[in-house]
Amino acid sequence: MSNMVKRFADTLNQVQHTGAYYASGDIEMHAIRLDVTGVGTIALPLLDVLEAMNPSSLEFNEATGNAGASFDRLYALAALVVWPRKRYMNVIAQSGIVASIGFLGEMCKEWQNSGREVDSPIRIEAQQLSKHIIEQWPTDKSSYTAKFSIESNDFMAHLISFEDLKQLDKFLSKCITEVSYTSANTPVLLQCLTKFSQAYAKEIVTAILVAHSEKQLAACANLLYRVVKLFDRNDLQPAADHLINTIASPTAQESRYHQRINADASLESVLEVLPALEVMDSALAKQAATLFLEQSKKYPMDDILLPAMLRLYQGDASRNLPSVCQLREQVLIHLKQRIAKPLASPENWTRENKMTCRCDNCQSVAAFLIDPKLSTYHYKAAEAKRSHLQTSSHKCDLDFSTEKKSRPYVLICRKNKASYQKLYQQRSLDLKDLASLEDQ
């Protein structure tokens, strides 16, 4: 036996688990990644043994007028990666969730083309890989990314194709119910539920609604709407009650960015919750409509309830729902009250005082705003004071310009009709919305 073969055999005897690397001598490990055909990207160590190796070639260039001398060494280093066939899926799993699910899809096609035998080695290995994928699935909701929502659909579809109900049960129980659920998962989830008993399906649906309704109210309501006809309504009562509690819960203070993001989510919530609860119990849907109206910060009339009402009223299936009629009545009252307010262009130069500061300079502008005869105000001061005055009057009907003929510069404030123009535009929109909601 050659020395190389003997050392290779000794190294194999030391391997105890997947991912173990062994070499002789004092060697530092430097992790790199390597693309292997048929496997994907795997992690490998780069052995820092260049100093102990003889270079394959040497190249020396003498110094020139513009550059110093160079001395290049070329090393050739080969790595032999070996793993037992029975641990092949362990190696694939190390490539990550996305790559592993993609590989599982290829295995699924191969298994279907080979006759779909239950005891096929391909199916057995697929079950092993599925187990590794579930073990690697993110458990922290904060680390869950949108891409996993798409990958989870592919994974569930593969498990259905392989008829692997054991791993599908684990995935639904551990990953979908506990980690994350979005509306994109609903179609595939419904396919999964048909593979189990009604009792199990009801348990999964209830668990999803309880775990995710706070963050995914619209998605959970849509799920309830789509499954309520499959089960006894009394079985889903706890899930419906949890939706009501979610609507009633107060909203924490949010940044403007999250307010914009959550506004879209709140609009979709209204659109999904009312039809879903109507199928369950009309009284619950009316309770939800009342809560939407009471939670004005979470569901503001103009930003959420009015747009939702316009869309619900356009749908033939939702127009005459009792809860929608209840919400429509309150939206109409809101529109009619605002339309009834007088609207006329300013007759003089009096403007509303909306100054946010009460310092002497700002109060001078406040006096200017309510003066019916003055249209322009000049304020000669240093830049800091001009900026302060302009910031404090940003809500007022004023246009600003700076005169730079002499120092300090002069801030010129001119009254405009911004408030009236805004009300005029709102009146036109209100009349249009009123006509849409009164159209039978």
Model description:
Helices cover 54% and strands 10% of the residues. The chain is mainly α and 440 residues long. The protein folds into four domains: 3-82, no CATH class; 86-196; 220-343 and 425-440; 360-416, no CATH class. The strands form three sheets. A three-stranded antiparallel sheet has the order 5-7-6, covered by helices on one side. A two-stranded antiparallel ribbon has the order 1-2. A two-stranded antiparallel ribbon has the order 3-4. It is flat. The N and C termini lie far apart (94 Å).
What distinguishing features does this structure have?
three-stranded antiparallel sheet, 10% strand, 440 residues, 4 domains
Largest sheet: 3 strands, antiparallel
Spatial shape? flat
How many distinct domains?
4
Number of strands: 7
Q: Strand order across the biggest sheet? A: 5-7-6
Distance between the termini: 94 Å
Q: List low-pLDDT spans.
A: 23-32, 252-261
Number of helices: 17
Gyration radius from CA atoms, angstroms: 35 Å
Q: Strand fraction band?
A: 5-15%
The class by helix and strand makeup works out as: mainly alpha
Helix content: 40-55%
Mean pLDDT: 83
Q: What is the H/E order? A: HEEEEHHHHHHHHHHHHHHEHEEH
By oligomeric state, this entry counts as single chain
